[in-house]
Every structure is written in structure tokens, then in C-alpha cells.
């Protein structure tokens, strides 16, 4: 079968012919329909041999694609609660706090005709459209898990700031609006993404300029110098982390998702009194079930830009350039 593989670190992926996988006991063979693309893929492609966090953890030579959805093609022995032809998404719970091998990240992923996964990692969406559900398996569910870190703080009269309104941040805005009555500030450096934030419910949009200084001043002015109760940073540069610290109110909470390698100095006077800081990585299968339920109920907007399997590199190029409209999803016939 044809697959799109990361053959070596620091080089673009390549189309290769590989054997069709076969399901073992307790496994499911998925005929791939949709695979979402992610900035993490670009981070892996750009990794130099031996570099952190990927190339020092596992070897290149695996099929990319970690946002996967399709149809059951074959069941391994002992799998009796799915049927051939049923639509499923793949969910592999990430180990928090460290990079580990997952499908599409060290292990063969879904940019191929078929994918084998353990039954425990296949979640039925019955007759749902895999193209819509594929981005939920990482972008949406990772944002959902992070928002769960702050929802208890967001009572009526409180506010939250989301920094970075890309594939994850757009979902983050929606989850906070669905689950809380908080006032939402969306922060980004691109007007197009701020427009999307307004479209999905953000109450205030703030342009990230001058390394965040102007955004900090604007948020503090709009909150009458009170600051915000919760900040979720989907970027993770030194500048965005500095902004997060600057706008937090006392006893606030900052949650970091972005993996851009920024650092934040923590000391008296650098962070609001009793402000908490957390790093959120990955999600759980229950998170994914709940996110899928929101889509089925029509409560979550999912924007995708479809690409054919022979245009995977084009999709990655547009992802790198920031010119996508919605989440890039590679769709198989």
C-alpha cells in the first residue's frame, strides 16, 4: 500500500510502498478516510538527528499522521463489539509531561491506506463523517483537556484569555463559551484568525504586537486593571508566556499547551500573587468521547480544508505558511 513516511530527520516526508498491515488479536484494521495534519508534524520533519524532543527519543522511518479516522476494514480475533464498515476515530491517550511514541509520532500513523490499532484505541462514531471527526482526535481534544484545567474558576463575572487562535485555540474559545459564562479574550497576531475567534464566540479580540506589550495594556485596560482569571497559552514562546503572566490576576491560573520552547521566570513580582501555573499535554479517551458528542449534537464548529492523498506535501506547505482555512485534512477515496 502507499504511505507518506518520515524517512529521515530534517527532510520532507516521502511517498513509499509498504506492506498492508494485518490485525492481530484484539486489534482493528482501519481503512483510512481522513487524516488531520498538525504543526507537530512539521516539528518532527524539521528535527535534526539527535535533537529534542523527537529525534533523541525515537528513530525516523515511520508513517506520519496522528489525527486519524476511517472505517473498520477487518477485526482481529476477540474483537466482537465493532462491525466491518463502522466509522471510527483513533484515540491514543498521551503520556503527560514527556514525549512518547504514538501512531504518527514514532509509530506508523494514518497517512496510508490502512492503519492497525488496538481495539481500546478505536472509538465508534457510528455513521459520522470521518473527515469532520479526524481533527477532533488531537486538535480539539487537546484543547478540551486544557480548558478542563480552568473551567472551575470561570464563574459568571470572570474572564479568560486564550493566546493563539489557530487549530487548537479556535476550539478553546468554543469550549469556554459552551461550558462557562466567562468573558473571553482571544489573542493572536493575525487578523484573519481573530475574525474566526469572533465568529466562534470570543467577546474581545486583541492583536499580539510589540512582543505582547500592547496586548497586555489592552487587556488590563478592558478589565479595569483587574486582569483575567485564566489564561491558556496555545503558542508557548517566551513572549506569549510573558503576556500570560502580565495579565493574570491574583489567584489566577496559567495553562501552557504551546511547544515553542519559551521560558517564564517565576519569582515575587514576576507573577501575580498565588497565581498557579500548569502544563497540559494530551488528553483522555473520555475527553474524545465527550468532544465527539458535542459535534454530534451540533454544538461545535469544525472547519476543515480538504486535500487529496497525492497532495500531502501541498497541505504541509500551506500549514507551514499559515495560509490554511480550517484544519488541513487529507482525504482518501
UniProtKB/TrEMBL annotation:
The answer to keyword Membrane applying to this record is no
GO MF terms, alphabetically ordered: oxidoreductase activity; zinc ion binding
- State the needed cofactors, names only: Zn(2+)
Keyword Transmembrane appears in the UniProt entry: no
What's in the keyword line of the UniProt record? Metal-binding, Oxidoreductase, Zinc
Q: Where is the Enoyl reductase (ER) domain?
A: 13-330
Q: Which family does it belong to?
A: Belongs to the zinc-containing alcohol dehydrogenase family.
**Which PANTHER family has this protein been placed in?**
ALCOHOL DEHYDROGENASE 1-RELATED, VACUOLAR PROTEIN SORTING-ASSOCIATED PROTEIN 11
Descriptive protein name:
Uu.00g076730.m01.CDS01
> Which species does this protein come from?
Anthostomella pinea
